[in-house]
Structures are given as structure tokens and as C-alpha cells.
Amino acid sequence: MTEVPTHTPSAVELADLELLLAGALAPLTGFLGQSDLSSMSRTGKLADGTTWSVPVTLTVPSGLAEHAELILTDPEGAPLATVTVTERWPVREGRVGIAGPVRRTGDGGRPPFARLHRPAADVRGSLGGDRVVGFFADRVMHRPQIAQVVQAARSLAADAVVLIPVGTAGPDGLAPEALIRCILAANDRLNGATIVAVPLPHRGNEIHDALLRSRVAAAYGVTHLLAAGDMLTGGGPRVIVSREFAYDARDGQWRWRDDVPDRFQRDPLTSDEINDMLDDGVTLPEWHTPPAVARELARARPSRRHRGLVVFFTGLSGSGKSTIAHAVADEIRESGTRSVTLLDGDVVRRELSAGLTFSKADRDLNIRRIGWVAAEVGRHGGIAICCPIAPYAGARATARAMARSAGADFLLVHVSTPLEVCEARDRKGLYAKARAGLITGMTGIDDPYEVPTDAELRIDTSTGTIDDGVKVVLNSLIHGGWLPA
Questions:
Q1: 218: Cβ–Cβ under 8 A, 6 or more apart, which residues?
Q2: pLDDT for 298-320, tens place per residue?
Q3: 321 annotated to a ligand binding site
Q4: Using alpha carbons only, what angle is made at residue 373 by residues 387 and 469, rounded to the nearest 5 degrees?
Q5: 3-state DSSP helix/strand/coil % of the chain, to nearest 5
Q6: What does this chain do (predicted)?
Q7: Which residue pairs, CB below 8 angstroms and at least 24 apart, start in 146-149?
Q8: Check: CATH 1.10.3720.10 for 6-104?
Q9: What pLDDT sits at residue 352?
Q10: Mean pLDDT on 148-159
Q11: How many CA atoms lie within 13 A of 14 on its CB side?
């Protein structure tokens, strides 16, 4: 008997797989094929005439495409489902698209709060009436958002379903499990709403995101979808545009703004105001946020004084970035105010990335490894200081995303010392070897350096001393609240 090969899909494909297995993409039972995709792009319908507008696809390495079945696994290799391949077609070099139905296999894919990842049919069956108000809680629900859901359900005499999109960090910058904890903390104020976690990472297309949310909401029994503004539904639930709420200072209730006289109104806090209060460790006011929610949010997003931070230096060899990074780390260690880990480029190459070359792929892998370690340091409330060359913008963006997904802040420091100054220093003799043709792949000589456009700090050691650069970084950490004065 031939062993069935395994494959780990991408994050979006894994999310689609979970939705398929949960029945949340009904009537789909598997990944779409070419005929359905072609018909959908032309008519907004599948080949059988079913209205559908979101591509749900799976690509695999060419070497796996010829098999009749594939076992799909989670990133740890645990089996999730088996796909029976009914169609295959080339997508790009080395990758093939496959279509076919999926069926659950094994016991993999148990995320945090697995009990909230419920089959769509189970949720529909648990609802009592024929009217259901749905709300996608992709950020923390404060009192104004809670009032919107409760009031909408009350006005329609409907059940309420709160759908929590998980898969990537939301607008609040919270990890999915932290967002779920904050929503659950508001549960006692939602009048018995059903809470469901659904894997809905951003797909890079706002229209597809909106249409998919509408489809998923309908699968979970939602008849009226509460949204902040116009939303494409593609035949899904009716959209209710949420009205503005204001705090009524007369009795401490949140009501529709037009029901509260101007002199008694208090506006909801803005996202910036909430973030500033959390950064400073200030407790959110009870009139705006239920205490249980405020406590969970403070745990998930502690003050900057106790929050993890990744300080990521980038610059040419000889720019002075390692010297500044070492000095900054030493100053923090001497103060004893924060736990600090230094990930020096050369040390990482020896201890973490031994064997990697200086090709673009290996350079990106090296930065990914540094970014992962730094994010884990930040996840546990430490400061990680990194100082690789990191010449490519994409790899730096990945490191930033890793830190943020771990709940840490990220500070990019571009040590922008000009090439001619770096080459004149040439402490390691690398530039001379590159000019002589003895080595290749030297950043700034025969390999590009993509100048950051998103750096929070820029330091040029040709116009100032190393001590000046150290002071710039430390002052930024102090003024930003990550270090005490």
C-alpha cells in the first residue's frame, strides 16, 4: 500500500481548510478547481450556478501534485484533513494548484479556545429564533460596542452571535487568544450572546474579506449583520449599519447619540486615547470599559515599562550599528531596570545560522531566525536588541510582524553611515576583499542594501560619535516609556 504524502498549507489555506471542515463555507466541501475559478471571475458564480465570489484554493509543490490523495497537516505536522485530488493545474514554477473535497483526518489543529471553534451546524441548531444579529469582533469590545450589539438584538427581538476573527493580530495589535479573553470578559454584558471563533486572516483583498465574512456569518445562522458602514454581502445576511452611541452622563448609560442631549453626551474614547492610556499603565475608565475587560486588556497589553520590545538595528558593515547596539545593551544591563538579550549579527551567524550562505534566500532565513528569537524574548516581557545588516526590506518587515504578533513593540534603527565612510573603516577587511573579487555578495558592493523607509530612528556615525548614537537610542527608549528616566 502506497503511503499518502503530507503537506502543510499556508496560513490562509489552513484557515480555509478549517472553515471547510466546520461547514462555514457551505455549499463548498473542498478546494475550488479551474472551471469554478474561471466561472467565478467572469460571472460571480461557480460552474454550477451557485453565487460565489471568493477564491478558496490550494497549491502544493509540483512533486506532490500527481498523488490521488494528500494529508494536510498543521505547522507542527499533525494531520488535519485528507484532500482527494480531482483536478490539478500549473500555477507557477514549482507549484501546482489542486482541487477536491476534504474530510477530517487525525486530531491536529487544536488551537487555544478550541471549544469556541464550533461547527456551523451546531451553532445554527443552538439558536432559538429565526432572527439572529451577528457582529464580527475583530477588536476589543468596550461599552459602546457592547451597547450596539445588545440594542440591535433587542430592537429585532433576535438572538446575538459574536464572531471573533482569528488567525492574525487584529487592529488592537492583540494576539488572537488575547482578543478572545477580552471578548469573553464582556460576555456577562452581552445578554447571552453566542460566541464563536472563526479563522479569518486578512487575505490582502478587502472585497474578498468582506464577502467571505458575509458568507461565514450566514453559515453560522446570522440573518442581520451589524457593520460599521456599507458592506458587500454577496447574497448573505442583511446588513445593519451601526448607529453612533454616546455616554449619557445623567444615568451612566450608553444610548444612541440622537437620544442624548448634547450637554449630557460623552464621546467614546478613540483608539489613540486607549493606546496612550495602556502605554502609560493607566486603568481604562469604568464608564467606557467594563472592569473585567480592562483587566484582561491590561494583561494582554501591559504598559511600555513592562512590555516586550525589539530594537532592530540595520545598516552597512562598518556603519557602527553593532557598537551602538552593544553599548545600549550594556547601559540597560548596568541599570538593572529591564531584562535584555543581545542578538549580534556575527554571533547569530555562528550560533544560530551556521552553514547559511550570503544568498538572498539564506540572508532572509537568517533574519527570520533572528526575528523569531527576538519576538519570543519580547513575548515574555524582555528587550531584544538585534544588529544584523538586514539589507532587504521584506525580511525586516517580517521581523516587525513577528514582534507585533508576539505582543511586543518594534523599533527599527537605521544606522545610515554612508558607504564610503564604512568602506574607509573596513575593520574586518571585507570591502577590500570584495573590491579585489575575493568574495562576492558584499552588501553595498555587489549586493544591494534597501534603505529603510519605515525606520523610527536614523543615526549617521559619520556626523556624530558612537556615544551620540547611544544617547539617541536610550533617550528614545526613555521618552517612549520602555525605560525609566
A1: 236, 237
A2: 999 999 999 999 999 999 999 99
A3: yes
A4: 25
A5: 40, 20, 40
A6: Catalyzes the synthesis of activated sulfate.
A7: 146/186, 146/189, 146/190, 146/254, 146/290, 147/245, 147/254, 147/255, 148/226, 148/242, 148/243, 148/245, 149/190, 149/193, 149/226
A8: no
A9: 86
A10: 92
A11: 22
Sheet containing 245-248: give its strands across. 253-256, 245-248, 265-266
Tell me: is residue 41 an annotated ligand-binding position: no
Task: Answer whether 6-104 and 309-479 agree in fold.
Answer: no
Q: Is 39 annotated as a binding residue?
A: no
Burial 18-43 (b: 16+ CB within 10 A, else e): bbbbbbbbeebebbbbeebbebbeee
Q: Phi first, then psi: what are they for 393, rounded to 5°? A: -60, -40
CB atoms within 10 A of CB 327: 17
Q: How far is CA 293 from CA 184, 194, 285, 376, in A?
A: 8, 18, 11, 25
Residue found under cell 532565513: 365
Do the annotations mark residue 320 as ligand-binding?
A: yes
- 309-479, which class in CATH? alpha beta
37 in helix, strand or coil?
helix
Q: Give the span between the Cα atoms of 107 and 389, in whole angstroms.
A: 42
Q: Which CATH number does 112-300 carry? A: 3.40.50.620
Query: Is 335 annotated among the ligand-binding residues?
Result: no
Peptide bond into 27 cis (omega under 30): yes
Which 3 state secondary structure label does DSSP give 87?
strand
Taking Cα atoms as reference points, which of 122, 5, 137 lies closest to residue 66?
5
pLDDT (0 to 100) of residue 182: 95
Residue 485, all three cell numbers: 528616566
The answer on pLDDT for 323 being more than 80 is yes
Q: Which of 105, 103, 87 is nearest to 32 (CA)?
A: 87
Domains of the chain, by residue range, sit at 6-104, 112-300, 309-479
Q: Was 318 annotated as part of a binding site?
A: yes
Q: Considering the entire predicted model, what is its pTM? A: 0.85
Side-chain-side CA neighbours of residue 193 (13 Å):
31
Nine cell digits for residue 43:
460571472
Please give the Cα distance from 431 to 454 (Å, whole number): 27
If you ran DSSP here, which 8-state letter would residue 9 be given? -
Gap between the Cα atoms of 33 and 87, Å rounded: 6
Read off φ and ψ for residue 353, nearest 5 degrees.
Answer: -125, 30
Pairing of strands 87-92, 95-104: antiparallel
CA distance 115 to 299: 22
